[in-house]
Design brief:
Blueprint lengths: L2 H53 L13 E2 L2 E8 L5 E4 L12 H8 L4 E7 L2 E9 L12 E7 L1 H53 L14 H51 L3 H29 L6 E4 H9 L5 E7 L2 E4 L1 H18 L6 E6 L2 E5 L29 H11 L3 E5 L2 E5 L9 H10 L7
Parallel strand pairs: 8-10
Antiparallel strand pairs: 1-2, 2-3, 2-6, 4-5, 5-6, 7-9, 10-11, 11-13, 12-13
Helix pairs in contact: 1-3, 4-5, 5-8, 6-7, 7-8
């Protein structure tokens, strides 16, 4: 079933269930109230007869003295003496006599009033028997008065109430189902449009397309905005992927073209030292570029990180060993948990970047201060800080044959370790989040004792 049908069916079922509960509860409450009202009427009539027996006992046998009516029905009254013999009765009884049942025996013997359900022929009765006082000279002194009323009116009223509630239940269920269907159709109309728009985008594979957003400000609008934001992110990712593929193709084409040209030259003219050197340089550049591309792809794929203790001071010394002008300063020992090979690549990229963009022969400073590691040179730093970490971006006038991927790899590695890269002039600072400092106190003390004071490679 569709969602619209399920909502309509659930609404109708809820209404029917609620009204069925009313069918049970309301007649019970109504019957209790009606029976209570009948009992009050019987009790009042019995009190009137008892007062008449005490004040004017001779009037009990007078015509019409015991007559009475309930709302819509006749009231039956019967007076008996202390031995249970009939003294008087209302004309409504005709030739019939109210039975001396448990309620009557309770009134005569135990002198306690009592109610009881009984029957008079085919009529269901509610009977009330009350003792009469022994005072007075009447024959009924010390006897009892029995007052009864038929419950057929109550039963008919309850039956009509049940039928009315059932009819109302059916009508309410049908009306609720119709209203739920209309409201659900109206509420789901934006979702239907979103579904159609998503199917259209899936068929066209147009990441620039957007889903139709309703003019409301409800959850459907939030869903449409969220999905459109996701489409925008996918569009940006696709554009970045296209740019990456284009830039990678361009960067790979340059050394490959040079290699083919040099290979053709060697094939025609034989080996030449300069040509062989160029071939070796192009091959080295191509290998470096492929290594960078693989490293970046590995970071993008989110490969699992190794969980090992990495001493930032040792990492800094290993990176400084690759450059004679690099100096290491350890202000506070720092050790983190992460992938040592990936972190070494990030720090090495920063050192090579400093050498490539700093002044020739300038000093490169590597500083460790707790969970931070900074690399700086004596140059002015990137001319465009916003684009410094973009893939394949190279500053104008940059020396060397860099691929433009080094800083992008640095940021990816550090962010995967839960840290961030800060740039201030020519100073690149790797700040690692406290969440990855999962080291024992003994490990930190060991790192502290071995890394005190500045040192150089």
């Amino acid at each position: 079933m569709s969602l619209r049908t399920r909502v309509a069916a659930a609404t109708a079922a809820a209404i029917v269930l609620a009204v069925l509960l009313l069918v049970i509860a309301v007649p019970n409450l109504l019957g209790r109230e009606l029976r209570g009202s009948l009992d009050d009427s019987l009790r009042r009539r019995a009190a009137d007869v008892a007062q008449l027996s005490a004040s004017a006992p001779a009037e009990l046998t007078a015509p019409g003295a015991l007559e009475g009516r309930l709302t819509g029905s006749t009231l039956f009254v019967q007076v008996i003496d202390a031995r249970g013999r009939l003294v008087a009765r209302s004309s409504a009884l005709g030739g019939r006599v109210l039975a001396n049942d448990d309620a009557v025996r309770s009134a005569l013997r135990e002198r306690r009033p009592a109610f009881q359900d009984d029957a008079l022929g085919s009529d269901a009765l509610r009977v009330y028997a009350a003792p009469l006082g022994p005072l007075g000279r009447g024959a009924a002194a010390g006897g009892a008065v029995i007052v009864a009323g038929t419950t057929s009116d109550i039963d008919r009223t309850l039956d009509r109430a049940r039928r009315l509630i059932l009819l109302c239940a059916l009508g309410a269920a049908l009306l609720a189902a119709a209203c739920a269907t209309l409201l659900t159709r109206r509420a789901l109309r934006p979702l239907t449009r979103l579904s159609s728009g998503a199917q259209s985008i899936a068929r066209s594979q147009d990441a620039a397309a957007r889903l139709p957003a309703p003019a409301t400000h409800d959850e459907v609008r939030q869903l449409a905005d969220t999905l459109n934001g996701m489409l925008a992110s996918l569009e940006r990712a696709r554009e970045a992927e296209h740019r990456f593929v284009g830039d990678a193709s361009h960067e790979l084409r340059t050394p490959l073209t040079s290699l083919r040209g040099n290979a053709a030259y060697v094939a025609r003219h034989g080996a030449d030292a300069d040509v062989l050197a160029e071939i070796e340089a192009d091959a080295a550049r191509l290998g470096t570029l492929l290594d960078d591309l693989l490293a970046l792809a590995r970071e993008d794929a989110g490969a699992p990180l190794a969980r090992e203790r990495v001493d930032l001071a040792e990492l800094a010394r290993a990176a400084a060993a690759t450059d004679v002008d690099a100096q290491v300063t350890v202000r506070a020992p720092g050790a983190i948990v992460g992938d040592a090979a990936a972190l070494a690549r990030a720090v090495g990229n920063l050192v090579r970047n400093a050498r490539r963009h700093g002044p020739p022969g300038g000093r490169i400073a590597i500083e460790v201060d707790g969970p931070t590691l900074a690399v700086s040179d004596e140059g002015p730093g990137p001319v465009d800080r916003e684009r410094a970490f973009e893939r394949f971006w190279r500053a104008p006038g940059a020396r060397g044959e860099g691929s433009g991927l080094g800083l992008a790899i640095v940021r990816s590695i550090v962010e995967r370790h839960g840290g961030r890269v800060e740039l201030d002039g020519s100073r690149f600072t790797l700040v690692f989040a406290p969440a990855i400092k999962e080291l024992s106190e003994s490990a930190l003390r060991t790192a502290s004792s071995s890394d005190e004071g500045p040192s150089s490679p």
